[in-house]
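ASSEMBLY PREDICTION REQUEST
Request ID: AP-0331
Submitted by: J.K., bench scientist
Number of chains: three
Total residues: 249
Priority: normal
Notes: Please return the full assembly, not individual chains.
Input sequences:
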Amino acid sequence: MGCKPSDKPKAKHRKGLWSPEEDLKLKNYVLKHGHLCWSSVPINAGLQRNGKSCRLRWINYLRPGLKRGMFTPQEDDVILSLHHLLGNKWSRIAQSLPGRIDNEIKNYWHSYLKKRIAKVENLEAQHTSSTSESSELPQNLTDQSASFVTDQAVPMHFDLPQRSPLPKLLFAEWLSLDKEGGSKPAAYSDGYNQASASSFEDPFMNGFVFNEGGFGTGLQDLLNDAAVNQLFKFEFQISGNDFIGSGWE
DNA sequence: AACGCCTTCAACCGCATCACC
DNA sequence: GGGTGATGCGGTTGAAGGCGT
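STATUS: Completed
Returned structure:
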């Protein structure tokens, strides 16, 4: 797009892991010339890769502003909440996590979060089966529509005692905050003081851009997304008891 | 030390969408 | 409107390292 089709030399493209030399070439080239046309980047940068591979390497690894390392508990909660809302829309989720990329989130989900949720659900299943005779599940959680919630691997209650059901609370509060431009939610008042705070919390809370797509902008997009609004309203309805936040409707 | 299994994560692949001709 | 190429996204694969035996 915005790039003239190149007369393809059909060169043999290298595959596999990138060497430091390749990284350096790509980084230097993109920083100097930009990447208006990825298919021409490897040619001009002297790389034996295809444009697609270069693009991926740049976006996932070389791009400035990427946040490497462990995910914070707050980021966990964002991922869980947004995955609940959006499903496997990793790029959409990544838009709300400054410095994180879709591939990283996807990997993190498959290697950690998914298992954590499965564990919680397993525990809950055990608990409910042990108390099934006196089940107090509301009717609206036993019908088909309610399966929407549980089938999406939703953490109704997290296994971390110090973290209660944060995601839903957080998201509800985000929404009301975003609408009112209000103050910091209580959920964040318990000393979120990590190094990432300035890049993670503030942009979101104030709704401005961080690098190439901030916490705030990502969320604003979500709020503007009619389908997501429908989803969220629906979810709010059927599991409203879990929300502390109010004023959404 | 050697082997096998498991987990993690970078990278690839296929498909959908978009833009241009 | 159809063909073609570029880009973006999500699913999947495979190399590498960790860990237990």
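REVIEWER COMMENTS: Residues 1-5, 15-18, 52-53, 56-57, 60-61, 103-104, 107-108, 110-112 of chain A lie near DNA strand B (CB under 10 Å from a C1').
SIGN-OFF: pending second reviewer
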